[in-house]
Amino acid sequence: MPPESGTDRGNPPEKRVSHPQRALQKATDKKRANLIADIVGHPAGAPTVEELAYMNPSLSEDSIRRHLATLVEVGVVEVHSLPEGKRLREFPYKFYALTEDARTLFDRNNLFPEGAWQRQYAAVEKTARIREVQEMPRPDAIE
User: Fold this and answer.
1) How far is Cα 27 from Cα 130, in angstroms, rounded to an integer?
2) What is the pTM of this model?
3) How far apart are CA 82 and CA 62, in angstroms?
């Protein structure tokens, strides 16, 4: 069966960028672009909402979740969760990463270069709590 549209590479439909122009439009909104830059810059490539809120203090966690939901809907971001037996008390268990298709789309359009955003992310001073969250284990699918 041929893919619906967009790039495939064996990705399930919910992880595909099926409408590249729409994905680019949603991804280049200023607030969502800042979130994507922080995802790209994160050492594990998969921050939590708590980490994204720290890096974007003008946005509430609810607002961040709404923007992430939009990015998931267009196939730019995917959600990874720690299995129940591996979750740590008082720590987040959901992580947000770029889809492979989004990374390919961004590379083709010279958007969100990893090296630049990783240096930018590393340059921000983190609180002890954010350092703890940053260093916590991520789901196997993204490690």
Assistant:
1) 25
2) 0.85
3) 21
* HSE-up of residue 75 (Cα within 13 Å, Cβ side): 25
How many angstroms separate the Cα of 53 from the Cα of each of 20, 35, 60? 27, 9, 7
For 98-137, what is each residue's pLDDT tens digit? Answer: 999 999 999 999 999 999 999 999 999 999 999 999 999 9
Angle, helices 20-27/30-41, rounded to nearest 10 degrees: 90
Write the CA distances from 100 to 64, 105, 107, 124, integer angstroms.
Answer: 21, 9, 11, 26
Instruction: Kindly state the DSSP code that residue 109 receives in the 8-state scheme.
Output: T
Burial zone of 128 (CB within 10 Å; 0-12 exposed, 13-18 middle, 19+ buried) = exposed
Helix (H, G, I), strand (E, B) or coil at 79: strand
What backbone phi and psi angles, to 5 degrees, belong to 80?
Answer: -120, 135
